[in-house]
Amino acid sequence: MSPQNEDNRWWLSSVVGDDATQYFDLDYAVSIIKQGKLCWQAAASIAVQTSLFNQQPEPTKAEKALAQHIADSAIEPLEALVKIILDKSDKESDRENARTLFHARFALGGLYIVKGDIDRAADILTQVASTKSILEVRRVKSSDGIYEEHTFVEGRERVSHRADIFLGKTLASYEIWPKLIGKGNYEKALYLLTQAAARFHWEATFIFIEVIVDAWAKRCIELNNVGQWVGLIDALAEIASICDGGEEIKELGASPSACKITSSNYWAWKFGKIVGDLWLYGKGDLVEPLMEGCYPSLDDWKNGLAFVSLFSECDEKRDWETAHTFYLEMWERTANYYGFQLFEEGADSSLYWAMRVGLADKFLKPRQPERPKGDGTVVDIMSPKLQADLREILVTKGLIKKPLTKEDILELIHSRESEAVEFKASARWDYRKGALNKELGITVVKTVAAFLNTKGGQLLIGVSDEKKLLGLETEYKTLGKKGRDGYELFLGNLISENIEKGKVFCSEYVAMDFCDIDGNDVCLLNVQSSPEPVYVKEGRDKNFYTRRGNSNQKLNTEEAVKYISLHWRQSLS
User: Fold this and answer.
1) What residue ranges define each of the domains in the chain, with the CATH number in brackets?
2) Residue 127 has pLDDT above 80, yes or no
3) pTM score, two decimals?
C-alpha cells in the first residue's frame, strides 16, 4: 500500500501535491488524522494508496498485512474527523473543511473494502459519489503537459480531476458491486457503477453495468413489482445521460444496438427494450398504476415522460416491421447529442428514435408466452461461469490483460521480427562486451517510440536476434532492486525519462508483462499506437522514429512533418 514505485509516487503527487510528500508515509498521515487535524492531504494520501491497493488483482501477503494495519488504525480517527466536520456550523462556507470531508469519506470507503464490510463501504462511497456538481473547468499546465482540472462541490469543495478518477476506479471495484448484487441490491450496485462510469470512462464498467441491467430486468419480470421497474427505468435514463456523444458513434453500426456500449444511443436503445419488457410482461398489473402516476407521481418523475411517450406506442397488433424500418431511418437522419437526458429529447434527436428502435426490436424478437415463474430467491449473477464469461469478454475487447503463457512467448519467438515484432537480448547488459551499456536502453526507448508512432507492436526482451533464449537473470543482477519488480521499475523509468511526456505514454500505451520459460524470465512490452506524435529525447534534441519493416527509422524534420500530417490527419484536422 505504500508508494514503493515511481508510478504510485507520481499518482500521489498529482493528487496530494509535490509539496506534501511527508504525507506519502501512511503511518505519518494516520498520525495527523488521529490528532484531529483538518488536513485534506493526509486523508487524500490514505484514500489514494487504499485505492491503489484495492485495484491490485493479486496483492502480496505483506501488502495485505499493511492494508489491514492501516484499516485498523485509521478507520476510527477518520470517522471521528468526518463527525467533527459535519458538526461544524460553518462547514458549507469552509472550502478546506469540504475538501477534507471528501477525502476522509473516500479513504473510509476504501478501508471498509479492505475490512470486507461491503455494506458500509457502499453507503460511504454513495455519499462521496453524490459530490459531483461541477463548478468550473480549468486548463492547468503540468510537467506532463496540459490536462483538465475539474472543480467539484460539497458545499464549496475543490477536488482535482485525478482524485475523481481514483474515486471512479474505487466505485467500480470488483470487491463491491458483485457482492451487492449477491444480496439483491441492484439499485445501489448500479448507482455506484454509473457514478464510476461518469468519472472514468472505461468500457469494462459499461459491460458490468449491462450485466446488472439485464439481471435486474429479469428480476423485475419475476417479481412484477412497480418500484423495481421504476428504479430500473430511471437508472437506464441516468446511464444514457453520462455516455459518450459525437458523430463517430454512428459510424460503428447501422443500428443503435450496434453502437459502442459507451454511447448514449446504445443506452437509449436499451431503454426502449426495457420499456417493451414492462409492457409485455407487466401489463395488467403495472400499466395502469404507472400511467396514473401512482408510483411515483409522473409530474415529479421526469423520466416518466420518456416512458409514457414510448408506452403509448406499444401495441402487439401493430406492424412492427414497418415501424422498425421507419424508426431506423429517422435515427440515421437525426443529430447525435451528448449528455442530454432522455426526457429532454424530441424528434430531432437520435436518442428519441434510438429508444423506439429498441422498442420495435423487443416486439419483433420471439418472446416467451407468459411471464417466467420466479421462486423469490435472489439471482446470483456472479456464478463461476459468468465470471469466466465476463473475463473472456474483457480479454477479447482488450480491456484487461490476458495472462501471459509460455505458449504465447514461444509462438512469438518462432515468428520473425517485423514492423510489429522485435527481439532484444537485453536493455542493460552488453553480452558482447561483458559489461553494462546504457546505449542498449536507448535502443529499447527508440523501439517503443517507433511502435507508438506507427501501429503499435511487441518488444520481447531476453531473446536475441537469432531467437536464442537468454533470460533476464544477468539483467536482474545489475539492478539495486532485483527481480521482476526492480526490472519493471527500471524499464518504466527508462521510457518515462527518455520520451517526451513519457510518464503519460508509459502508463497509458505501454503494457509490461513477464513470463518464465523453463527457468528463464523474459519481459514483453505490448505497445499501442499513440493518438499523437511521440519524440525521443537525445541530448538537446527531440527525435522522431517510426517502424519500417523490422527496424526503427529516424526521420528528419521534413520527413517527420509529412509523416505526422498523414498518419494523424484526422486527429489534427
Assistant:
1) 1-175 (no CATH), 181-400 (no CATH), 401-572 (3.30.950.30)
2) yes
3) 0.57
